[in-house]
Design brief:
With 397 residues, the protein is of the alpha/beta class. It has two domains: 220 residues, Rossmann fold, CATH 3.40.50.2300; 120 residues, Response regulator (Rossmann fold, 3-Layer(aba) Sandwich). It contains 13 helices and 16 strands. The strands form four sheets. It has a seven-stranded mixed sheet with strand order 7-6-8-9-10-15-16, sandwiched between helices. The chain has a five-stranded parallel sheet with strand order 2-1-3-4-5, with helices on both faces. α7 crosses α8. 54% of the residues are buried.
Length: 397
């Protein structure tokens, strides 16, 4: 009898191990503009998100050993129909449980309204910053780890005011992101006593921006504020302004931040100022080390926010006890904020264990995560200036 009981116990243990090892992986959609106006940024963003997924998989602590699989899809950043189709494929064909993304505000809003809500799928965007998303109907499914442009508009206006800039020309990419940031910036800048000589949209994808640059030059101003995309129209406007001598000093919003822009334009970018969501402190330092150890670029924009978005999805699933959007939706705010043990990048396994044992975590992450209001980041910004072809931090705001 004793031998029989031992045999039964051994077979039960083996069966349990087989079940754990045989769990289907939880699939997380990573939908970003791998083509389009920010295509030089999105591979690094995906790397950040997938680093968090790999960390969770390697820990073996997610829901008793469930692995995480990333499934990428192209939002294009600008084509809402294509983005929605890509999101539909992620949900219906790839059977993803949640979405890390999207990136640009227009396509993010379209996916949320027409795909995510219809299917009950959670989205955490690392970079969709339009103020309109704060009040979008989302059924509690939408969160973001980048702060709203309502805040960025204030920050950029304050940077210019502190530098004694009195009047500026403004150009913005003609979409939800550009219009929202432009409105927020102008409201703040004028409220601080500044004047706007012109506020002109530009379209992405054009080969020639001489007409737009001509109108901006005619209006004049102490400098040109460019609220566009680093791989598209924003770059074209800056190049045209420099070539024609219309402007030689620029201020840029977050969508313009990118190493490739500095490489493409060259020394004409020196003296450029701007703002980009960024963070400093223990969590930011830990993230940089993790990315460098993995052979990835930690210094591109929105990589930190992408890591944090993926981490929040998976920690919320653990808190809810299931690899589903329903569990994530119910617990994102719980794991993002106090009370609980503070969790930095590289400590996701530890967090999962705490949650498994019924404890609480306060996810600090790479960006000092604190979700407010309808589930968006409070956020901090890096004020920078381009000097000798490199972005140099002035301070954090």
């Amino acid at each position: 009898m004793k031998k029989l009981l031992l045999a039964l116990a051994a077979s039960t243990m083996l069966a349990g191990s087989a079940i754990a090892a045989g769990h289907s992986p939880v699939k997380i959609g990573v939908i970003l503009g791998f083509t389009g106006p920010i295509e030089s940024l999105t591979p690094h963003m995906a790397d950040g998100a997938e680093l968090a997924m790999q960390e969770v998989s390697d820990s073996g602590m997610l829901l008793d050993g469930v692995k995480v699989e990333s499934v990428r899809a192209d939002s294009t950043c600008i084509d809402s129909a294509a983005a929605q189709a890509a999101a539909e494929r992620l949900i219906t064909s790839d059977k993803i449980a949640a979405i890390m993304g999207a990136d640009c505000s227009g396509v993010t809003g379209a996916i949320l309204a027409n795909v995510a809500r219809a299917n009950g799928v959670v989205m955490i965007s690392p970079s969709a910053t339009s103020p309109a998303l704060s009040t979008a109907e989302d059924d509690g499914l939408f969160f973001r780890t980048a702060p709203s442009d309502a805040r960025q508009g204030e920050v950029l206006a304050s940077i210019l005011k502190d530098k004694g800039i009195k009047s500026v020309a403004v150009t913005y990419t003609n979409n939800d992101y550009g219009k929202g940031l432009s409105d927020a910036f102008i409201s703040s800048f004028e409220g601080m006593g500044g004047s706007i000589t012109i506020n002109a949209p530009h379209e992405d994808g054009k080969g020639d921006y001489s007409a737009e640059v001509g109108a901006l030059a005619q209006a004049g101003g102490d400098l040109l504020v460019v609220l566009g995309y680093s791989d598209q129209g924003g770059k074209g406007i800056i190049r045209g302004a420099l070539d024609s001598g219309a402007f030689d000093t620029f201020a840029m919003g977050d969508g313009m931040y990118g190493d490739k822009l500095l490489e493409d334009i060259g020394e004409g970018m020196n003296g450029t100022i701007g703002s980009v969501p960024w963070s400093e402190g223990e969590g930011a330092d830990a993230f940089v080390k993790l990315m460098k150890d993995a052979g990835k670029n930690p210094d591109s924009s929105f990589t930190r926010e992408s890591y944090d978005a993926a981490a929040l999805i998976l920690l919320a699933m653990q808190k809810g006890g299931a690899a589903t959007s329903e569990a994530a939706k119910a617990h994102v705010m719980d794991v993002a904020n106090a009370p609980g043990e503070k969790i930095l990048p590289g400590e996701l396994g530890k967090a999962l264990e705490i949650l498994k044992n019924g404890g609480d975590v306060d996810y600090v992450g790479a960006t000092n995560v604190e979700l407010i209001g309808p589930g968006e980041a409070a956020g901090t910004y890096r004020e920078y200036e381009v000097k000798e072809g490199k972005y140099e931090t002035i301070k954090f705001r």
